């Protein structure tokens, strides 16, 4: 996909539609309060391997300098044409189809204004390490 990019320092929306020899996904189970750290939540996530499946992979490329606000690199998800299976993609092989890219040069961040958010302690010293581990 990198051949479609003009450079790594802007955002890209990505969509791959077609036939896949395989798609490997995972899905983090629904969490309840008190919410565990990210690294704990992903430990029990089921993984799925789909073969010869038709669907779409959609997601974003995020520049490395945005790490901490977003996941640097590709963050993509799969959904099959029947809308029955999918998840966060960690590997795939596309047989045929279309690849669409849209360069995004604007980034807007809206923060919640709830009391819960405003008073929460969101400091996590190893957050980047947790994100990196969760994305593997």
TrEMBL record:
One of its GO terms (biological process) is acetoin biosynthetic process. Gene3D superfamilies: Hypothetical protein, similar to alpha- acetolactate decarboxylase, domain 2. Keywords: Acetoin biosynthesis, Decarboxylase, Lyase. SUPFAM superfamilies: AF0104/ALDC/Ptd012-like. One of its GO terms (molecular function) is acetolactate decarboxylase activity. Pathway: Polyol metabolism; (R,R)-butane-2,3-diol biosynthesis; (R,R)-butane-2,3-diol from pyruvate: step 2/3. It comes from the Bacteria. Pfam families: AAL_decarboxy. Its EC number is 4.1.1.5. It catalyses: (2S)-2-acetolactate + H(+) = (R)-acetoin + CO2. Transmembrane segments: none annotated. InterPro entries: Acetolactate_a_deCO2ase (IPR005128). The keyword Chaperone does not apply. NCBIfam families: acetolac_decarb. Belongs to the alpha-acetolactate decarboxylase family. This is Alpha-acetolactate decarboxylase.
């Amino acid at each position: 996909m990198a051949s479609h990019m003009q450079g790594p320092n802007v955002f890209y929306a990505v969509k791959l539609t077609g036939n896949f020899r395989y798609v490997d996904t995972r899905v983090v189970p629904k969490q309840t309060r008190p919410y565990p750290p990210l690294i704990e939540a992903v430990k029990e996530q089921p993984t799925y391997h789909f073969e010869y499946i038709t669907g779409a992979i959609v997601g974003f490329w995020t520049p490395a300098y945005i790490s901490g606000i977003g996941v640097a690199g590709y963050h993509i998800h799969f959904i099959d044409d029947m809308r029955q299976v999918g998840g966060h993609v960690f590997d795939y092989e596309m047989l045929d189809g279309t690849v669409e890219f849209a360069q995004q040069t604007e980034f807007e961040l809206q923060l919640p204004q709830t009391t819960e958010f405003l008073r929460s302690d969101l400091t996590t010293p190893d957050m980047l390490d947790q994100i990196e581990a969760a994305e593997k």
